[in-house]
Amino acid sequence: MAKKVFVSGCFDMLHSGHVAFFEEAATHGDLYVGIGSDRTISELKGRRTVNGESERLYMIRSLKFVTDAWINKGSGLLDFEEELRELRPDIFFVNEDGYTPDKKRLCDEVGVELVVSRRVPVNGLPPRSTTALRSECRIPYRLDVAGGWLDQPYVSRFWPGAVLTISIEPDLEFNDRSGMSSSTRKKAVELWHTDIPEGDPELLARTLFCMENPPGTTYVSGSQDAIGIVFPGLNRLDYASGEYWPEKITPVHDPEVLDFIEQHLWFITLPPRDGAFNVLERTNISEDGARALAEAAEGVWDALLAKDISAFGRWYRASFEAQVAMFPLMKSRVVSETIEQYRDRALGWKLAGAGGGGYLALVSDRPVENAIRIRIRRERSV
After folding, report:
1. Which residues contact 294 (CB under 8 A, 6 or more apart)?
2. What is the per-residue pLDDT across 56-108, written as a single tens digit (0 to 9) for each?
3. Which domain holds residue 50?
4. Does residue 210 sit in the same domain as residue 270?
5. How many angstroms separate the CA atoms of 90 and 5, rounded?
6. What is the chain's mean pLDDT, rounded?
7. Cα 326 from Cα 303, distance rounded (Å)
């Protein structure tokens, strides 16, 4: 009797990469497909689908590799949980960028084998991904490397310091509310549509910052978001006490430094933070906490310029610990459990942003299985 194989995903803008994924999954047995609803995709990606759920279901059910398909009833990253428990497949088949610790825990609980795709290429066909097909928009994301929160005056007034950011190419469509400045990026798309225009990067970043924070804004988004998106490469933003905008921006475009970061950062997908979640509750902001955060950012900066992996991991972890000491809700149960899972394989860890969910970024001197790699936006050629 053939094994039952289950896959789940968005499968918007159905293309040959999806079909190859289904074909590979079907080599393990009879294939069943759970499809994310339009509502779920809107919640996770912060956008509408190109093809609605009924159209996606029709196309996927028509594929010869698929035994049956349906729209998942749930929501979030585990929107398929009810269907998985009912189907009781032998195998749950995922791509590397679809692997999450929560999926592994669920499979272990239900007694399902989790198999990660080898991404078998199709001879003669170009590689395809939904993100690539949507790549007419090249506006990057932002990663908070160290010092996050010091761009807020209510933190820096206790102790000034630096925030380190890197600009991330949109090779992946990062989930909404995931710490990658997706809300600021949406404003950039609204402002510039497809790419950041030529011009003075600081002026462009100020324009984006002002658009996101018009007069009368109750909560002002940190300027590191706009700067981190607009400025390519690695950037150090030095904030004086109580200021929204840094007094100095120091860019780093050295390819060896940027290669070093790309080679040693690994992303693990976490659930995005809930829309009602407020990380600013139960804060404990103090001079000691802000100073520790500034010192950790200084340590990360020196480690990156020296390409010192041990120091990078140590100070990266210290930056996260300093954030959590002042904003304890950043470290949820899921974040804590994921850190414990990777503690022995990583030199350091930190959330991709300061909001309490989305992606756990690991510093490691060796490959991390089933983790996502990022690509840093390099300086534009003239």
Report:
1. 147, 150, 159, 160, 161, 162
2. 999 999 999 999 999 999 998 899 999 999 999 999 999 877 888 889 999 99
3. 4-133
4. yes
5. 6
6. 90
7. 24
Confidence of residue 274 (pLDDT cuts 50, 70, 90): low
Pairing of strands 113-116, 91-94: parallel
Alpha carbons 302 and 177: distance in angstroms, whole number = 30
Of the candidates 382, 152, 380, which has an alpha carbon nearest to the alpha carbon of residue 251?
A: 380
How many Å apart are CA 141 and CA 226, to the nearest integer?
10
299 vs 317: CA distance, rounded Å: 11
How many domains does the chain divide into? 2
pLDDT at 124 over 80: no
Cα 205 from Cα 178, distance rounded (Å) = 21
**CA 53 to mean position of chain CA atoms:** 24
Between 3-17, 199-213, 221-235, the lowest mean confidence (pLDDT) is in 3-17
Whether pTM > 0.70 for this model: the answer is yes
Domain boundary (95, 113, 133) is at 133
Q: Residue 56: exposed, middle, or buried by beta-carbon count in 10 A (0-12, 13-18, 19+)?
A: buried
